[in-house]
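Why show two proteins at once? Because comparison is the fastest way to build intuition. When a single record is shown, students tend to memorize it. When two are placed side by side, the eye starts asking what differs. So, the first record is below.
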Amino acid sequence: MKEGSGRRKYDKQFKEEAVRMVTEGGRSVAEVARGLGIHENILHKWRRQYHEDPVGSFPGKGHLKPGDEEMRRLLKENADLKEEKEILKKALAIFSKHPR
């Protein structure tokens, strides 16, 4: 857990352990949340996120889930290719105007 601008941030390990305490430890969400000093709704949200995607849940600041990372990479590649295409179009136009 990190203290910041009034909002606490929890790392992936903390969130996974909190979820594990509920799912495997047989404790209630309310009990675990009280023990960790967090609101029950936060723990419910973490539990839902973990059950939806155990491997990709809680990617952390600056990190994306694998599928989102691939999408970001493909969008960047697409933008780069469009830019290269425009450069080639401009070069073709310039060289077409000035025959040798």
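Second record. Ask yourself what differs from the first in the token line.
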Amino acid sequence: MTIGAVERVHPKMMTVVAIMAGLLPIMWSTGAGSEVIQRIAVPMIGGMIFSTLLTLTVISAIFGIVKNFSIAPWRLATPPSAHEKR
């Protein structure tokens, strides 16, 4: 059984690193208008960290619980054999 987090680590981390690489220089800038842009960059960095933790831990745990929970009781019944005739 493959857990969703295992399949999503590489694409998620590539996205987060690329976005953070773009946002960190904006946070450290001191030029004209940097105060306004820094106010936008800080929540975006926090959101990227939070979304990464949420995607890789919480959502994967919920997926694992739901996947193991049998919603369809008819799947538990054994199917009739191909040799049986009614």
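One difference worth noting in the second protein: The mean pLDDT is 78.
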